[in-house]
Amino acid sequence: MSLLPPPLPIPPRHNGKLAINELKARAQHGQADIDAFITGRVIPIVEGPKCTFLYRGNVDAVAVRHRIVNQPNHVPMKKLEQVEGPPLWYVTIELPAHSRVEYQIEVRVGAAVEVFNDPLNPHVAHSPVGSSSVLQAAGYQTPEWVLPQSDARPGELIDFKFASKALRRVTTNRLYLPARFRRSSRYPLLIVHDGSDYITYAAMKAVLDNLIHDLDMAETIVLFTNSNDRLKEYPNYASHARHIVRELLPAVEAKLPVIPRADARCLMGASFGGVASLSTAFRNPETFGSLFLQSGSFVFTDIGSDHGGGPAFDPVVKFMNRYREKPRKVADRMFITCGIYEPLIVANRSMVPVFESTGAQVRYVESRDGHSWENWRDRLRGGLSWIFPGPKKLVYE
User: Fold this and answer.
1) H/E element holding 195?
2) Using CA atoms, how far apart are residues 65 and 166, in angstroms rounded to an integer?
3) How far apart (Å, rounded) are the C-alpha atoms in residues 358 and 12?
4) Triad 290, 295, 299: Cα angle to 5°
5) Could you report the per-residue pLDDT of 3-54, keeping only the tens digit for each?
6) In this structure, what DSSP letter does residue 35 have?
7) pLDDT above 70 (res 143)
8) CA torsion sign, 22 to 28 to 30 to 33?
9) What residues contact residue 56 under an 8 Å CB cut-off, 6+ apart?
């Protein structure tokens, strides 16, 4: 099932003249006029579905570089004719309500090209590979539950290093214990691939604290795992699966009061981490009752021949082709999310009926977002409260 919910009422269309067109209609555009136009505005300027990007500077050409699949990702800006001052460059694009888009500004001076974050937009998203400016289209709001709440008792993060024989190295992990943790209780276990990135870039510690405090999610112990070489260890790598299931899982069960049943275990990951979760569960049937897969790199070539991902995706393609040829249930429940602006949207949509054909209960959610940590962050409440529902969630369902 494909769900693309509007989390807020869709805002009305902007029926008046756009702000940039009002500025263009004036007889003159001096430096003071441009200063007054920019000052106090939220940039990009969002007016209904119309989003206007601005840049000010003496350059030869300017463009917006965004990350919306199937759209030209290089959108040239026009220069406003002015009588004085540095030129104002602008371009307007149309986006559906509730969209969130990461982008950067490209400028050219002669043969030199430079790409950087929008100097007029303070909203920036971070990731392990850098940062990008963020456009929040009409209707999008950062969820309140991703921000630290003063009344939510904080859980505890504990470093947990493990000398892995399977991987022949020491792995660096972290354990999350809920605020009211008691050794006399029993808890479900969530294992998260790329755990440090989820904590740093998807605010997952604050999200867990808030969801548990608000009774949306059951009190849960979380194991945040990490890899030194994701491209090698995540796509159906036997040693990685053995490390998760034969080393880390028994170690956590010996250390903490987790419920030792498949229906109380969930494996989670995004992008290549989604492949790692799927392949680990595939290699260890009846170990995990649930999977939470975000923008999984589920690339295959049984339809078509060119996966377009380069050599790093070859082991992924090999695994996915084999799985699609003979699919079998890897978990009873699967929560899958993907952004419609990312290249993996077709692969994720295509896998939903394959997973459903195995008898798994699948909940699939799309968002107007891209392949980004804030997209994955914004989907956490939906997935975690469905997989391990808290008292409030159980009452309303």
Assistant:
1) helix 195-201
2) 42
3) 42
4) 100
5) 544 444 544 445 568 999 988 888 677 888 899 899 989 999 999 999 999 9
6) H
7) yes
8) negative
9) 34, 38, 86, 87, 88, 89, 120
